[in-house]
User: Which sequence fits this backbone?
């Protein structure tokens, strides 16, 4: 019985260390949370998303940084036409292109690393969301739309 308790305690301790290590791995010292990196469904780009620490702006709920990479490299892809959507239960609750005054017109990033502010008035309640990033063009050339998706969880 004593051996079984010790073994269980060791397993619990190792699991806790693993969880702490994983958390530290995906969250850097500035509080930025790495949400992931994956390829678009057509493999034209790799996309990475980080949730950034919110500066002292009382109007912001979330702040994201998107990185567009040439496929399977760490080279930033410049001049990408895209959008940034947040979905809850399959419904769009935020669409960045609708915030620009030109709804539904794709956004353009010159340097391949846009920041996406999400204001508090969008009412992102606690829960799980999907970030969807459709790509419409690369280097001023339209492409058949491709999408990259990420899971995202928010708390108050």
Assistant:
């Amino acid at each position: 019985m004593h051996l079984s308790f010790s073994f269980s305690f060791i397993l619990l301790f190792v699991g806790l260390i693993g969880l702490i290590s994983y958390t530290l791995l995906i969250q850097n010292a500035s509080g930025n949370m790495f949400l992931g990196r994956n390829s678009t469904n057509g493999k034209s780009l790799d996309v990475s998303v980080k949730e950034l620490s919110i500066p002292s702006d009382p109007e912001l709920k979330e702040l994201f940084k998107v990185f567009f990479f040439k496929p399977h490299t760490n080279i930033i892809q410049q001049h990408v036409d895209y959008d940034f959507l947040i979905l809850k239960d399959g419904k769009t609750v935020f669409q960045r292109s609708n915030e620009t005054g030109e709804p539904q017109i794709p956004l353009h990033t010159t340097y391949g690393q846009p920041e996406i502010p999400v204001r508090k008035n969008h009412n992102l309640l606690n829960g799980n969301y999907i970030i969807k990033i459709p790509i419409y063009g690369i280097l001023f050339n339209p492409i058949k739309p491709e999408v990259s998706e990420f899971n995202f969880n928010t708390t108050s």
